[in-house]
Amino acid sequence: MWVGYYLRRWTQVLSAVVSLFRLGFGMDLVLILRGTWLMLRAMRLWQPFPDNDPDRAEAYMCELYALVRSRFGEPDDPARAAALELDWWRVHRERQYMADPTQRSDELVESVIRLYSYLFGETEAAVRPAAIHRVQAMDLSDQWVREGCPPDSSLLSHERAALVRAYAALLAAVHHA
To answer: What is the rounded CA–CA span in Å between residue 120 and residue 109?
Structure first.
C-alpha cells in the first residue's frame, strides 16, 4: 500500500519538475532531463529526516541554478541562489517537526522572500505577497500529510488555490509593462 503511494507521489513530483523545466524555462529535452535529475537528486538528498545531506543537496541545487544561468544568464551567483533555496527548505523542515507547525511562519515567509527577491531582482516588498501565499500552500500541504494524505481531501483544492495565488502574485511582481 505505502509503496504504491510513494510511487504515485514521486510520479507526480517528476511530472511537475519536468513541466517546470519545459514550460517555465523553455529548455530542450536534454536540458529538461538534466534539470529534472538535478532537482530530484537534491530533493532526495534533503528528504530523509533527520539524516539528510544538506551540503550535497545544496551542491545539486547550485548545479541546477548554474544550468538555468547557462540558458538565461541569471542568477548571477548560482551558489547564492542554492544557499537561499536550501534556507527555506531548512526553515520549512524545522517547522514540520515542531509541536505547533504554524510557529515561525514569519521566518519561513522571510526566507522565501529573500529567495524570490534574489532570483527575480525585485524588492522584498514586491515579492512578499507571493511568499505569503506560497507559505500558506506549504502549510496546507503539511496539514494534508499530517492527516494521512487522503486523496479526496478538500485541503488539496485549497493548496492548489494558494499556489495559483502565489504564482499570480509572483508574476505580478516581476512583470513590468
So the answer is: 16
CA 52 to chain centre: 17
- What does the buried/exposed string (b/e) look like for 71-90 if buried means 16 or more CB atoms within 10 Å of the residue's CB? eeeebeebeebbbbbbbbbe
Alpha carbon separation from 7 to 12, 36, 42, 43, 156 (Å, rounded): 9, 17, 18, 15, 19
Which residues have CB under 8 Å from 172's CB, separation 6+? Answer: 129
C-alpha cell at 126: 514586491
Question: Which letter does DSSP use for residue 152 in this model?
Answer: T
Question: pLDDT by residue (tens digit) across 32-48?
Answer: 888 889 988 999 999 88
Residue with cell 515542531: 98
Is residue 1 scored above 60 in pLDDT?
Answer: no
pTM: 0.86
Nearest to 32 by CA among 21, 23, 24: 21
Query: What pLDDT is recorded for position 24?
Result: 63
> If you ran DSSP here, which 8-state letter would residue 48 be given?
S
CB 75 within 8 A of CB 118: yes
131: its cell numbers: 511568499
Compute how many other C-beta atoms are within 10 angstroms of the C-beta atom of residue 23: 9
Tell me phi and psi for residue 4, to 5 degrees: -60, -40
